[in-house]
Amino acid sequence: MKITEFVETLEREGELLAEQAERAGTDALVPTCPSWRITDLLRHTGAVHRWAASYVRDAAVEPGPFPEAPELVGAELLSWFREGHAALVRTLAEAPADVQCWTFLPTAPPSPLAFWARRQAHETTVHRMDAEAALGLAFSPVAPEFAEDGVDELLTGFHARPRSRVRTDRPRTLRIRAADTGAVWTVHLSQEPPRAVLGDAGPADCEVTADAAWLYAALWNRLPLTGPGITGDESLAHLWTETAGI
């Protein structure tokens, strides 16, 4: 996907997140993030937006502290969130294509600007789902290409890091197959961080097959990783649910 497409998605998803959060009310519980209320969701995502924008805006090449969100509530909190979201969209849209700044995943798009546009588009989309969950709504549609990209970021980026808790005592293999886009990932599990590779790389102990949008929500733990699309050793799907939270 192009940087402009990620920025457009970020803009749309952030606006929808704010709308749904306002509908739910800032005191509403967020079932997809146990112990969170909408207030926590807005503070977290608003702080992430400001944190990400600072790296691109300042061309910062070293990691810095994560900002603390102000103790705002209600309409003031929503305004603070919207201001930070708009500033992030503007920063990414106006940044030089060759800006150099810090990034944090082992596999990433071809430039720091592409990294941050992609990361914030997915960050905001997943948290938009949280705002919808607070209202008891079915999740708004996610485009198959974007969902596929988000699954790839999760498998080859986030869970390639040493901090991933998805581990098995002996080598096991989990296959993820997007039925609508044709994308396939083979995830090798062991006592080390998961190693995900594209394609059918040998037999799998468990296979998860579904449309990319469902995989996106389920692998980010916003939907239960269960159903007829899971074949083989379902304990690996349970393991993912229990340990893959970011």
Structure notes:
It is a single chain. By secondary structure, the protein is an alpha+beta fold. It folds into 2 domains: 3-135, Four Helix Bundle (Hemerythrin (Met), subunit A), CATH 1.20.120; 164-243, SCP2 sterol-binding domain (Nonspecific Lipid-transfer Protein, Chain A), CATH 3.30.1050.10. Helices cover 48% and strands 10% of the residues. It has helices at 3-24, 38-58, 74-94, 112-135, 144-156, 212-219, 235-243; strands spanning 172-178, 184-189, 195-198, 206-210, 230-232.
What is the CATH architecture descriptor of the largest domain? Up-down Bundle
C-alpha termini separation: 23 Å
Radius of gyration, taken over Cα atoms and rounded to an integer in Å: 18 Å
Tally of alpha and pi helices:
7
Low-pLDDT sequence parts? none
- How many E-type strands? 5
CATH class of the largest domain: Mainly Alpha
SS class: alpha+beta
Name the strands of the widest sheet in spatial order: 3-2-1-4-5
- What fold name stands as the CATH topology of the largest domain? Four Helix Bundle (Hemerythrin (Met), subunit A)
Number of domains: 2
Short recap of the structure:
By secondary structure, the protein is of the alpha+beta class.
